[in-house]
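FORM 7B - TANDEM STRUCTURE REPORT

SECTION 1: FIRST PROTEIN
SEQUENCE AND TOKENS:
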Amino acid sequence: MKKLYIETLGCQMNKSDSERIAGILSHFGYCETDIEKEADLLIVNTCSIRQLSADKAYSKLGVWGKRKKTRPSLKIAICGCVAQQDKEKVRQRAPYVDLVFGTHNIYQLPELIKRIENDEKICAITATPVICNQNDFKILRKDSVNAWIPIIEGCNNFCTYCVVPFTRGRERSRNPEEIITEAKNIIKEGFKEITLLGQNVDSYGKDLHNPDITLANLLRDINKIEGEFRIRFVTSYPSDITDDLIDAVEECDKVCKYFHIPMQSGNSRILSEMNRRYTKSEYYEIVSKIRKRFPDVAITSDFIAGFPGETEEEFLDTLKAIDELELDYSNTAAYSPREFTKAGKMTDKFLPEDIKYERLERLNEKNREACLKSNEKFIGKILTVLVESKTQKDGKTILNSRADNNKIVHFEDDTKNTGDFAKVKITRAQTWCLYGVPIE
């Protein structure tokens, strides 16, 4: 067997792509290793949402290029969003790379690998995806408890800061029967949690032009599968969260009461500049509607600090929104200009780096405050959790688990195993997690 090493940078969609890549290559004599130096084929699966991620990818290629000088038979590949966006730049900066393939070309790997094994150097980047039944390919899932299923890829929104429409393309939904078959196989394999993935997951089905194919109905169908398991979905676009979707979350006992809804800014003018299709007040209405239906729901978000032209007062609206919305957690980042995007051309409005990162620091502090405040509300409550892993500490078995609402819960118990469900009474809260005791 030849050995394969994949370095995955970026979101859950990238991680899911890496699992599919490993599965495809397992049919061609490659087994995955966690040790870079053992590998015969090195792949970096990249994200280009922020410049830092792209820089990490090129840094990794540089290290591997030095290794290839002493081991010419070593094969190096780059895939994902940086490859899709920078195909010519990659070949210029790293001419030793054997294979560059984009987000649309994963299912061409059988042919591409044969060619690089014959010492060809290939750049396989297409503007449209290679269409196939994804269930025809094996998936090597790394997690033993949680499994990801991409249900829609790409984005039609063209937010002015975001490169996803240029790297992942327009929205493309998978056939629901194909998704349900994959979900059934996941449950048969013993997984206890399914996460449905999409850049805009609640846009699922719009491109299929069938009013019955929606995320809400897909949740209902997967909920009917026999077995003890949970269902999540990420990432939601605020204005695509329909009343029917909220109804489905309430109806389906296996669907987690958790919503990840990126807001990006708490100021309506900045939201308009970002080309987000909602105002501050409309976002507040969506959150209010969800909270009224689910008292213990967790709502998380994303925010950008220092968008071009953002004033101090507009930034303060973001800090205020986190408090007023009682958000449970937020992913945060300083604005990073991306090639091809409209905001990336607003150079006359770019803020100085020190201002951007000072705002990010304050945003992170507000996020920490919000997380602790959110967690403290659960002290004394009983949560149903799924054990994801366990560790030994001072001779005790500590179970690391996740509640329905995505809260991390640690508790001591030597009777439960990874993959088990348990009821835990919360006794203590910290910024990023909860502690509790098991109850019968």
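SECTION 2: SECOND PROTEIN
SEQUENCE AND TOKENS:
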Amino acid sequence: MPALQSRAASRRLVGGLVLSTCLMVFGAKAATPAPDARDRQQAREIYSELLRIPTVKGQGQVPVLAEVLIRRLRAAGFPAEDIQTLPLDVGGETTVGLLVRYRGAAGNTRKPVALLAHMDVVGAVAENWSTDPFRPVEKDGYLYARGSVDTKASVALLATTFIRLREAGWVPDRDLVLALSGDEESGSRTTRQLAAHAWIRSAEYALNADGGTGEMAHDGAPAAFFFQAAEKTSVSFKVETRNRGGHSSAPRPDNAMYEMADALKGIQALRFPVQFNEVNRAMAEAMARARGGEVATALRTLLGDPGDAAARAVMEKHPEDANILWTTCVPTMIEGGNARNALAQNVAATVHCRIFPGVPIEQVQAALERAVRGSGASVSVDAARGSSPPSPIRADVFEAVRRAVNANYPGATLTPEMSSGGTDGRYFRAAGIPTYGVGSLALRHPEDDRAHGIDERMWMESFDRELTFWDVLLKDIAGEH
């Protein structure tokens, strides 16, 4: 028996030498290694460095952050011609969009894929935080800092993924283009520049890290993740009433404040129709399976008959679930009057709407005008972000994302999502590029819902895993060479 084992071992050794020789002769190489502890430490270092840069509107720090990334990417071997900044002056402040092209193999004919995130963050009221919002602090398994979730984690992870794959010699079979915007939180002008760039405009699709989070229970139950394929349109309308005013000692029935009250009551009574597209239909079906009870019954009824009034009434009692079903409009600010002892001459209210994909802004404005009719109020658009159609749920992309999610969280669900918020993705969709919010960063709900709020934080166990998500996904969609 020992002799047989010895001969078998010799055959394996010879076979291994022959295989090694063949690999050297024909230029083949082993698969690129998966992320390791050193890679995760590098991601943490980049993350911490980015979080210390206050990329808030008005402070001019986005170009500083972009230069930090450029230095690291150049050191990893990305040539200067594959890195571009797109500077833009906004109100006297310069911000930038950043593009990094990871070139595909010579002669590749596949269309590029864009990878999206944003470098800017919203402001923070430091005295309301338990830590300095721009000095990252790790405690209790979380890292606290402004932008820790939205979205410097994703910027750091994507940059680290490009760096480690480049250093390992990985060559994709198509171009991958990292597109980082500089003003997503304050207008998305750089986003529109990025979407129109020659490296991007021919992209087959875009993967948006800003839309890629999931929900994780404290007890370790399988996480739920989302495949964002649509977004509502964010529009603020100005509702105004005017009056000749007068002395408060002689009040009259015609009063700008009374008229505004009538206008707002009309808006309170306004109902937009239940609507379904491919994305929120899948969401409603998944919610019905998960929730049970009256919500499940109401959703199944509306899926069959969107006009069912009784089912709608049930869903209106659950606004956190119902907002995927229709356009919403709600007053958020009001101002008026010019003196304590004078009848108001001007009253203005801001009504903020989240409009169902594909519904024209003008159609919603007309509905508001009908709702305030008789009050004497006028309605005008105050501020509007870009609108976009939903992206088709491509089976190949969905399954690639599912595989990447399950590499981190076996058994986790992945569900199509229509966001009631807004991201850069809408501008890429409007430019004709199907865009999907993806990722497996897990937030524990509701206590981790802190983006834009006090003590924003990232669960670092999930952050450390996320390099695996991007490693698996990029090799899936762009080959292993």
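SECTION 3: OBSERVATIONS ON SECOND PROTEIN
The chain has 14 helices and 19 strands.
The chain has a mean pLDDT of 91.

SECTION 4: SIGNATURE
Preparer initials: ____
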